Amino acid sequence: MPKAVYYLDGITKITDPFYKCVCRGCRHFFWVTLIDSPCPECGSDNIFRSFNKREAEGELLRLSESE
What we know:
The protein is an alpha+beta fold. 19% of the residues lie in helices and 19% in strands. It has one helix and three strands; from the N terminus they run E-E-E-H. The longest helix has 13 residues, at 53-65.
């Protein structure tokens, strides 16, 4: 069995999926590997997360239209 390859943090495998996230506080779009990561821009925990980039883009659009 091949040995797993990791990112520099030593925890995250190269093959781990990324969540596509939208902060509902500041509308920042970002990718993370951990489900409980806060927004890197404002620190909010009110985050939309999906493995599907189109769903995340749809949430960003929905938030923009609700202003």
